[in-house]
Amino acid sequence: IAVVVDTKNQLIGTVSDGDIRRGLLNGLSLDDSINKVMNSDPYALNVTSSRSEREGLLRKKMLNCIPIVSNGNEIVGIFTLDNASENISRKNPVFIMAGGFGTRLKPLTDNCPKPMLPVGGVPLLELTLTRLKNQGFTNFIISTHFLPEIIQDHFLDGSNLGVDIVYVHESQPLGTGGALSLLPENVTKMPLIILNGDILTDLDFTKLLHLHESKNFDVTMCLREIETQISYGVVETEDGYVTSLKEKPAYRHNINTGIYVVSPDFVRSMKYNRKIDMPEHIEVRIDNGYKVGSLKHTGYWLDIGRVSDYEKAQKDVGGFLTEKILG
After folding, report:
1. What is the mean pLDDT of the chain?
2. DSSP string of 135-172?
3. Tens digit of pLDDT for each residue in 124-133?
4. What three-state secondary structure class fits 315?
């Protein structure tokens, strides 16, 4: 299949090899305009469509592939039979922390929780839920604090997205880890995925979960490697003598992406309603001999903490990255 777009990358048609053959049989030449053979009313699905919806349309219409478009009808990808696979349901709960004030994003967050800011016309939190749903996760817990009614009124119990959502409310901010102590007991029976609600990523969460379970880790952290460029020449010394000079060196570091898988015991070890950040409690677990593993993510990841990050997210999701994120 070939996708035909206008100057704004909006879908206006598709062309298959069959369309070209029929055109040639009807007397057209290879020099004729594409609009003489293209299907100007092709089937297409929105980026927020689920994998099962895409597979269902392929089967119903006996198609091999289908264009995927944004809310503005911009082409963002192609879903093919090669992409189609049985969507395995995963019972592991996913805990999304969405209670922050988003202070660095003001005035955008004056009247809107940061995870509800629209990215490509869709709330950031909805993009996250859709990606996880497309990987088979359907049980979600969302922690709220700032303007919780906006989040709850939008998603309700999650049935409109085909998932189950329950909410825990922080009456006062509990840090990136304290809200775990508010979770109901029934979610502490299997490994729990945790992530911040202001993250945009194409991470395969099933891969992270598999590593955690196969290695029997207490915590598995998702990491990302970044490079820090020093703007000056770095001089190393020893006992007053200069031993080396490095002109504007670059150093690579692993950073915490704010995505974890934790054991049921880790959740139960949190003190009720106590403010604590995840890194602080993870260090405690390491000091007590628990195994903490890591997975380095080399794909797309963006922490939307500043206005410049938000602007980058809009540009990224406006392009072909949307399909990759929702996967």
Report:
1. 90
2. TTB-EEEEEE-SSHHHHHHHHTTSGGGTSEEEEEE-SS
3. 999 999 999 9
4. helix
